[in-house]
Specification:
Blueprint: E1 2-3, H1 21-26, H2 28-36, H3 47-63, H4 70-90, H5 99-102, H6 106-122, E2 131-139, E3 146-154, E4 159-164, E5 170-174, E6 180-184, H7 186-203, E7 209-213, E8 219-222, H8 226-249, H9 258-261, H10 271-278, E9 286-295, E10 301-307, E11 310-317, H11 322-327, E12 332-336, E13 339-340, E14 346-348, E15 354-357
Parallel strand pairs: 1-15, 4-7, 11-14
Antiparallel strand pairs: 2-3, 3-4, 5-6, 7-8, 9-10, 9-12, 10-11, 12-15, 13-14
Helix pairs in contact: 3-4, 3-6, 7-8
The structure holds iron/sulfur cluster.
C-alpha cells in the first residue's frame, strides 16, 4: 500500500525534556516535526522500544524494593506484560503482540532480570531509612525544561539520582594514541546533569551523586559540577527559544545526516531528509520511480524501481500490494526500512517497511 503523508500542523513548543536534549541539538526540526504531527510517529516504532519500557518498569520496581522474591518478580513480569501489550495494541502495533513471544530471547531477558533482583537482595544497603521517589516529574520554575526522573534516593547523608538504561551506556572511543577506551554516552551525561539541576531548582536540595544503571547492574557514575548543570539548563532554554523562532519564521534548522536521521521515525514528512536521500545519503530507505511490479506463485510481490544507483528490486511484499503498485507505475516513491539482499541492487521488505509518495 502506498501511504499518504500526514499533514503538518506546526505548533509552538512549550518545554524541552532532558531525555531529548542531545537529539534536539543534533536536529531542531526532528522535535518540530514530532509536535507538528501530534506526537504519533509516522514510521512504526521498533519492538525494542517496547522491550525498553517493559524492562525499565521492572528495574524500577526492584530498585524500590517492591519485588523481594522470584515469585514476586514473576507476578510483576506478568502484570507489566499485560500493561505493555495493551499499550502496543492502542498504538496500532499488533504485530508485536504478545510481546514475550515476539521478542527474541525473552527467556534470557527474564534470567537477567532475576540476576538483577538477586544482586539487589544481596546488597548491603537496607531499603528502610531511605526516601525513594520514582518516576516523579521535576521542572524549572518557568516550566521550560522538565522531565521524569527514574529514581531519586535520599539517604540521611546524601542524595543520588539513578537512571536506568536497557541498552549500552558507554561508547567505545579512541584516545590520542589510538587506544580504545569507553566513555558514558554524552547524551546520557547531559540528561543526568539536567536532572540534577531540575531537582535542585524544584526542591532546593543539592544532588550528591548521579548514576546510570544497566540490566547487568553495572553502575556508572557521572561526575558533574552544579555550574555545568545550570549551564545546560540555560542552553536548553536557548534552544527552545530558537526552535520557536524557527516555527514562527518557518526557517528550520534541519540537519539530515545518517547519525541524526537513522532513528528518526518522521522521515516520511521531512523534506530535508528527502532532498538528502535524493542527493545520495545512504540509509535503509530507497527513493525511486516505479517501473513495474511482479507477482510470484508463492504469493510474494516484487517491486522494480528506477533509482540513482540504477534499477533496483525490492522483494517480499504481500500480494495485497500488487494492485496499488500497478496503479502507481511512473510515480516517485520512498520505501522506508528495507534490508539489503545478497544480490547487488536487490532489497527485502519486512514488517517495518512502509511506502510513501515522495
Ligand atoms: S529526518 Fe533527519 S533531518 Fe529530518 S527531522 Fe528527522 S533527523 Fe531531522
Amino acid at each position: 500500500m502506498i501511504l499518504e503523508k500526514p499533514i503538518l500542523n506546526y505548533q509552538y513548543i512549550s518545554r524541552i525534556s532532558p531525555s531529548n536534549f542531545t537529539a534536539l541539538k543534533g536536529c531542531h526540526y526532528k522535535f518540530i516535526l514530532n509536535k507538528a504531527i501530534g506526537g504519533k510517529p509516522v514510521l512504526p516504532v521498533s519492538i525494542h522500544s517496547y522491550k525498553g519500557t517493559f524492562v525499565h518498569r521492572i528495574l524500577e520496581h526492584i530498585s524500590l524494593g517492591k519485588i523481594r522474591s522470584e515469585e514476586e518478580l514473576s507476578n510483576y513480569i506478568n502484570n507489566e506484560l499485560k500493561i505493555i501489550n495493551e499499550q502496543i495494541l492502542n498504538d496500532g502495533n499488533s504485530i508485536y503482540i504478545p510481546l514475550h513471544s515476539k521478542l527474541k530471547n525473552f527467556g534470557l531477558l527474564k534470567i537477567k532480570l532475576k540476576r538483577f533482583l538477586i544482586e539487589k537482595l544481596k546488597s548491603k544497603n537496607p531499603v528502610t531509612g531511605i526516601q525513594f521517589s520514582s518516576e516523579k516529574w521535576y521542572e524549572t520554575n518557568d516550566k521550560l525544561v522538565g522531565g521524569k526522573i527514574d529514581l531519586v534516593c535520599e539517604y540521611s547523608n546524601r542524595i543520588e539520582i539513578i537512571d536506568f538504561k536497557t541498552g549500552a551506556i558507554t561508547d567505545e572511543l579512541l584516545d590520542d594514541e589510538g587506544e580504545k577506551f569507553k566513555e558514558v554516552k554524552i547524551d546520557y551525561q547531559a540528561q543526568l546533569k539536567l536532572y540534577a539541576a531540575l531537582f535542585h531548582e524544584q526542591t532546593g536540595k543539592k544532588v550528591d551523586r548521579l548514576f546510570l544503571v544497566d540490566l547487568q547492574k553495572n553502575k556508572y557514575e557521572i561526575s558533574f559540577s552544579f555550574d555545568e548543570c545550570n549551564q545546560l539548563i540555560r542552553e536548553a532554554k536557548k534552544i527552545l527559544m530558537r526552535i520557536n523562532e524557527e516555527i514562527a519564521t518557518r526557517i528550520f534548522l534541519a540537519n539530515p545526516t545518517i547519525e541524526n536521521c537513522k532513528f528518526c521515525l518522521n522521515r516520511p514528512v521531512c523534506s530535508y531528509y528527502k532532498k538528502s536521500l535524493s542527493n545520495g545519503l545512504k540509509t535503509s530507505d530507497i527513493i525511486g520511480r516505479i517501473i513495474k511490479s511482479q507477482k510470484f506463485l508463492n504469493g510474494n510481490v516484487s517491486l522494480f524501481l528506477q533509482t540513482q544507483i540504477g534499477n533496483v528490486t525490492i522483494k517480499n511484499f504481500e500480494i495485497s500490494f500488487f494492485e496499488s503498485f500497478n496503479k502507481a507505475i511512473g510515480k516517485e516513491i520512498i520505501i522506508y526500512n528495507v534490508q539489503a539482499d545478497k544480490m547487488e541492487n536487490s532489497f527485502l521488505a519486512n514488517q517495518l517497511t512502509r511506502i510513501y509518495e515522495s
